[in-house]
Specification:
Number of strands: 8
Largest sheet: 3 strands, antiparallel
Length: 332
């Protein structure tokens, strides 16, 4: 019975030992991770992601690194600008382990080393520029810090991807002066913009008045041209109609009975105008005899035939005894 109990205890011990050996020798490395293995105190290998078997009690996993991108917070520090102004600056570094072996044996703590190096590089870069440029050239400062860190971290198997300044905090009195300056600049810009707006409005108004005067003069000129053109066409139409009328009258005169019709028309006009004179004036001019009507008709017909007037035919009759002397012809 005692022998059975001893065998059971030995079996349990052997089983526990076997489990311990399996745990110590079988290793599963997660994705984006790297384990550094030492054999008897010396570097042996870097285990990538996957399942691995180690020699029990000989191989030891000494370092465990993540290959993911890591963010390292850089604490706030006081920097002095080139114009002797103290500003508090903090930032953030993004880095990544590229060589696990050098990250393990190149430096004892690369987090601390990179943090301290970032602070010193930042103080150096801020000290080269003035306070105003510190706010304007954040990108330049970030790139310069990354350049300086890369020079040192390459031997550590670590790559500094970028550096970002989080805050730049000047002293309270400097901050108040900057706010006053900013307010004054904004007021100055507002006044300038207001004056420029008034100037542009005046220029636009003057330009509008100029365009209005020009358009009005062009419209008046075009109106005068149109009226003159209309009058010219009207005169031409009247002249054409008059010529056509005269031509018709000439054709009518040369036709059969035309001369008699003209004589009748002239006689009608003569009588009509004589009656008009008698109605409009107190002085009545009477022909010496009825033969004056015929002489006037003959004179008019002669004008129509020759185109120019001739000496009027005077057929004055001898005055009758006791008759009043005839009045001289009225001058036009």
């Amino acid at each position: 019975m005692e022998s059975v109990s001893a065998a059971l205890v030995i079996s349990i011990v052997v089983a526990i030992f076997a489990i311990f050996v399996v745990v110590k020798t079988a290793v599963v490395v997660p994705q984006q991770s790297a384990f550094v293995v030492e054999r008897l105190g010396k570097f042996q290998a870097v285990l990538d992601a996957g399942f691995h078997i180690l020699l029990p009690f000989i191989d030891v996993i000494r370092y465990r690194h993540t290959l993911k991108e890591q963010a390292l917070d850089i604490p706030e520090q006081i920097c002095i600008t080139s114009d002797n102004v103290q500003v508090a600056v903090d930032g953030l570094i993004y880095l990544k382990v590229l060589d696990p072996q050098r990250a393990s044996y190149g430096i004892s703590d690369y987090y601390y080393a990179i943090s301290q190096l970032a602070q010193t590089a930042l103080r150096s870069e801020v000290g080269k520029i003035s306070l105003d440029r510190t706010f304007e050239e954040r990108g330049y400062i970030n790139s310069q810090v990354v350049t300086e860190l890369d020079k040192a971290s390459a031997a550590w198997g670590v790559k500094v991807l970028r550096y970002e300044i989080k805050n730049i905090t000047p002293p309270q009195d400097v901050l108040a002066a900057m706010e006053k300056q900013m307010r004054a600049e904004r007021e100055k810009r507002a006044v300038i913009l207001g004056s420029e707006g008034e100037r542009d409005a005046a220029v636009n108004s003057a330009e509008g008045q100029k365009q209005q005067v020009i358009k009005a003069s062009e419209a008046k000129r075009q109106q005068q041209i149109n009226e003159a053109d209309g009058q010219a066409h009207a005169i031409q139409a009247i002249a054409t109609a008059t010529a056509e009328g005269i031509r018709k009258v000439a054709e009518a005169i040369n036709s059969e009975g035309g001369v008699e019709a003209v004589q009748l028309r002239v006689a009608e006009k003569y009588v009509e105008q004589f009656g008009h004179i008698a109605r409009t004036t107190n002085t009545v001019v009477l022909p010496a005899s009825l033969s004056d009507v015929g002489s006037m008709i003959a004179l008019a017909m002669n004008v129509l035939k020759t185109g120019k007037p001739q000496e009027p035919l005077r057929t004055t009759a001898a005055p009758r005894p006791g008759a009043p002397p005839s009045m001289p012809p009225r001058q036009p």
